[in-house]
Amino acid sequence: IRAHLTVDPHFTVGPINRRLFGSFAEHLGRCIYDGIYEPSHPTADEDGFRSDVIDLVRELGVSTIRYPGGNFVSGYRWEDGVGPREDRPRRLDLAWHSTETNEIGLDEFATWLQKVDSELMYAVNLGTRGVLDALDVLEYANLGSGTHWADQRVANGRSQPYDIRMWCLGNEMDGPWQLGHSSAEAYAQLAATTAAAMRQVDPDLELVVCGSSSADMPTFGEWERIVLEKTYDCVDFISCHAYYEPKGDDYGSFLASAVNMDRFIDAVVATADSVKAVLRSDKTINISFDEWNVWYQSRYHEVDRITDVHSWPVAPRLLEDSYSVLDAVVFGNLLISLIRHADRVTAASLAQLVNVIAPIMTEPGGPAWKQTTFFPFSLTSQLARGTALELRLDTPTYSTQEYGDVSLVDAVATHDEGGTTIFAVNRSLSEEVTLEIDTRALGVVDRTEAVSLFDDDIHAANTLDDPKRVCPRVNDSAQIAAGAVTITLPPVSWTALTLS
Ligand code: AHR
Fold first, then answer.
1. Tell me, what's the pLDDT at 300?
2. Among 67, 72, 291, 297, which residue has the most ligand 1 atoms within 8 Å of its CB, making it the best to mutate?
3. Structurally, how many domains does the chain consist of?
4. Residue 28 CA to ligand 1 centre (angstroms)
5. What is the secondary structure of 120-149 as a DSSP string?
């Protein structure tokens, strides 16, 4: 099977914003406690943070990290997590039926972020709280000194404000599972008032209003329209969230999950631009795709979920999905979709980071290891530089139950003065594909470097017992000819090919 690609640096989509490679750390399961923070671990540093995890997060190459939730944030009192640790209350976390000890809060998390060299993106609670609490945490985080909350931060040993730029106005307020879930009209009103108030403190904040928690929500589309009509002038981003998992053994549809993500993004862009037209606005609202991943959500509902009224564990094992090669190929394809929309998706957060639907796993007192999904993320973050390119891709198609006929190969390219990188997936379950790339517009190409992620066993995964079972391999099938490069893409594979 052959597919054909033409790459031309003149046909650009838009600049690659580093914020596309963000992630998300929620107070959920063992993400924060027994993940990022484990003071008794042999690698723990002076602040109780695991150094092996810090090293892996740095290697992963994450830019912005969204915190502290997620569903958790809708019941969170941020001030519980600051000040002397011994005074911090233990609270019910209704979202995950757990106990929140509040050992980690904004100050500790900001310290950890410095160690991993990432930017903080903070979500305020608009589920059970409102304007005043958002203003208080903004003052605590961003103002110098001389007023109550700023002085509290200084008293807590942080003289320098954090200068957080990106703020989420609540989380998934369209979801009936969300504490304080409301109608689009009610949420839009609260988000608009909160945004306006926060801008009275700092007009340059970058504010993210909640879009739909999935394109399958019954309110999808109308939610975006109503929310944006009310908030358009005072927000910068609308959020998208999407999680994918196979239905039974329908791997063909699962491998085409990025088709769904493409359509989701296109629909939200169309809705935002339609509101722009109706409002006669000059401003463009972009997307913060601030939760995306493969997530075996059915497993959470059937196995993990805690419901016993007397059971409120601290840091239980929740959402600890183990990712296969198949999952990683779908995941790599989702990154391709995000890059393809780099002009309008200018921020994104892989949900999540450690232990909870995560590229990094840890064992208490034991090792930390990379899941299969670690590799497409770290390689894309490292290699996607400069500008996203529009490609001409001629590929065979295959038929899926969920999305009809879809491309067998999907690809995107990025380009800067150092070279061009093509990210490609072969969605075929059985056939390899020869990808022929027309490189004439790139000038002389005399060097190729390629790595692929694939395996004879598409269900192979890295586990505590076998943490290095899967890793990317050098793909040495690339061949350079006059004005062309060919490369073989194995079945169910993700590839990064750099041309220079
Ligand atoms: O990432 C896990 C959960 O998924 C988040 O808490 C929530 O926002 C979403 O439903």
1. 86
2. 291
3. 2
4. 9
5. EEEEE--SS--HHHHHHHHHHHH--SSSHH
